[in-house]
Amino acid sequence: MFKRFVPFAMLPLAITSVGVVANELNPDVSVTLDGYYKQNDTALSHREQGFGLGHTELSLSSPIDDLFSGRLTAVFEEHDGESEVLIEEAYLQTNGLPYALNVRAGRFLSQVGYLNGRHMHEDDFVERPAAYRAMLGSHYYDTGVRLNALMPTPFFWQVGAEAFAGDQLTEGEEDIGVYTVNTRFGGDISLSQSWQLGLSWLRNRHAKLAETGDGSHDHDHEEDHDHSHGAGYTGENLYIADVVWKWSPNGNNREQQLTLSGEYLYADELNQFAASDDTNEGWYVSGVYQFAPQWSAGVRYGEVDLQEAHGDHFHNQTLDETDVMLSWSRSHFSTVRLQYTHQEATGFSNADNTVMVQYVMSLGAHGAHGF
Amino acid sequence: MTLLLMVSALPAQAQLRVFACEPEWAALVRELAPDAELTTATSYLQDPHYIEARPSLIAAVRRADIAVCTGASLEAGWLPMLLQRASNPDIQPGRPGLFFAADHARLHAPHDHVDRSMGDVHPEGNPHVHLAPDELPDIARALADRLGEIEPGASAAIQGRYIRWRGHWSRMRAEWREKAKELEGHSVVVQHSSFQYLLRWLGVETAVDLEPKPGLPPSASHLSQLLAEPNLGKASAILIASHQDPQPAEWLSEHTGIRVVVVPGTVTGEGPTETLGGLISEIIRQIESAASGVSHGGL
């Protein structure tokens, strides 16, 4: 067999080596460019008004040997003129252990909920729903280990558990600050329809002794703490239920696809001062219709009902958010998006309506996407 | 290893469980191992480049003994995710449980240099190899060997069926060769390289492609440019696959009078296009009838 040398940058599509690039010794390199223009600042947002760079990623991935694969993802972000480089993923992953077990270790995105385990550049809207921004810092990733098992059932049933340092969510003393349990079911209703249902529980052992501020009622810097990527609103227990339903005529999602999804998040035992009725709650529903191969339109509505810690007491905050978006993808690797966001809030001084224009471009290898 | 496979195959009543990425490979498995329990990930109404790694497919790969796919990056957008999520130790790159048809065929148009400005071009070559009359026997033989390796107890029966299939294929190929003589020199308009192997084999030329770049949907500006193509005048038909949006082809047909011929891009599971041989015969019949319509002045 002839072995032809092809520089890695020229390999399209093929990611974790589907045999054809097995003679390739360099890792696959992929870069995601995410830039935007935002008309106004909004509440609980990680994107400031004006021109800005969003989630710019550099990712290296490769099979390590026949048992392990690995991936490193660095994220470049800018806040108030300061550049940050964050390690979002640095993990090894097993390829096919006995009994369909699956182990991931290192730093990676937690699999709780539907959106959290997905890469941000796969999202249909400029930002994650308010519930995710408040309660998971948009996407919760941390250093730890995961074990998943896929049940030998005729339908899809996965159970999994993760243990994390926990400091990316809440700073604390415990060695294992967070653990999660997750289960997922799914299947096809017909040739055209498929579904998935997930239930997750995240135990945050750092939440009880979390820093709650000095209790002063100075709201000026209230939004600054959101810039750290930890979640602003945590609790000892976070429960998430998620459901996704997709439809495309004859299952041919190249031409058309409708995706309906929704999640409900609930956190309790917020900190040492919390009473039993002090809870954080949030949900969203989203509908995205890809009506032609290159065009999608979507609408999303979500609410959060939060308790902001002020020393030994809480201030109630609520936010209702509606997003409408239209996106165009020249190819599978380029997307330009126009979005309008409407916010109504109590307890947030910077809630506003805004128009956003965003591009998400993917260079180099492009990983396979999940459901 | 072989012993281990035999032992693990015995309690399951030796019924082979096969996951086929595309219907053409399911049809081929059915010819070689009719008793196998088959799951097919895609249908002739779907574009195999764009399938999602949905839960039902993950569960099916989890339970399968072997996955039979095209390879050459055709499934790069979804198969790696399926394999990783299913974490079936038998079905992983480099193991016997993952069979790629393209590894056993001479692919047309491999590229030493590929970048995305060229569109969705596969460096390994055109992956739509299931309509190549000369490549199928090699693929079928490799598949028969592989199925025998996975299920040694049935190996002799599988080889027997392969030899029968091979004889039948050779007879059909001789018939297609006869028909190709009448089609030689004709040309058709295509959308994507789905039928390229068969058209080349028949000596039917490609007048123009409705796609501006491989993998990009036909755009209005590209279509109006095509009207000025000198090759268009000679074309006998606009040949598109069932899973493709017919509107661009119909638009061009209205402006040129060239007939649109819609054929399944792969086997359909019923009727004359149930098997790969039947599918090729049907595609040739459709091109023939379009071509004779042209040469007889549109009767």
From TrEMBL, chain A:
Signal peptide: 1-22
Stretches the record annotates as Disordered: 212-232
Top-level taxon of the source organism: Bacteria
Comp. bias regions, Basic and acidic residues: 212-229
UniProt xrefs under InterPro entries: Porin_dom_sf
Keywords linked to the UniProt accession: Signal
SUPFAM superfamilies the record matches: Porins
Name recorded for this polypeptide: Zinc-regulated TonB-dependent outer membrane receptor
